[in-house]
Amino acid sequence: MNREAVIAEALGLLDEVGLDAVSTRRLAKRLSVEQPSLYWYFRTKKDLLAAMAEAAMTPHATAPLPTPDDDWRDWFLANTRSFRRTLLMRRDGARLHAGSTPTGDLGRIRRKMEFLVASGVPEREAHMAMLAASRFTVGSVLEEQADTDPGDTADLPADVPVIDHESAFEAGLALILNGLVHRTGV
């Protein structure tokens, strides 16, 4: 058993039972070890959850970084969509990620910010746009993952339009990007 194996099993447990049911007791049982042996790798459950959140973000965290030839608007959309896809890969992925600190991803975040600024987006606007897109994405995925019956619209009034999660996400993302373009003029 090693740290990576513990994280992998913890993510498997997350997918199986959901975030509320993940416990070190259940994880130890799944690994066929005594619960105290997990403390060798993670001092607290919070430490375990942070490691799980970081590992769950690997598909997004290993996506190619922007190049100077990229159009910043196309990249911004692709980056945010990649983040959403990654959150959706895990049961309760948005809840696991919410509140986590991207300590292993800080260099990549800096490179993304440098790209936006080099593309003409003022630094403060770039920070605010990345933050807004991130929080919007997490919130969208939280709602999507909490929707246990997306086809059930019986309680909605007849004049309320039904919008699927994908379309709602794309519309909100377009609003963020269009607002940034409008504010920056680039």
From TrEMBL:
Q: Where is the HTH tetR-type domain?
A: 1-60
Task: Cite the GO molecular-function annotations of the record.
Answer: DNA-binding transcription factor activity; transcription cis-regulatory region binding
By its UniProt entry, which InterPro entries does this protein fall under?
A: DNA-bd_HTH_TetR-type_CS, Homeodomain-like_sf, HTH-type_TetR-like_transc_reg, HTH_TetR, Repressor_TetR_C, Tet_transcr_reg_TetR, Tet_transcr_reg_TetR-rel_C_sf
Note whether rRNA processing occurs among the keywords: no
| Parts forming coiled coils | none
Location of the DNA-binding region in this protein: 23-42
The keyword Nucleus appears for this protein: no
Could you tell me which PANTHER family the record lists for this protein? HTH-TYPE TRANSCRIPTIONAL REGULATOR RUTR, TRANSCRIPTIONAL REGULATORY PROTEIN
**What is this protein identified as?**
Transcriptional regulator, TetR family
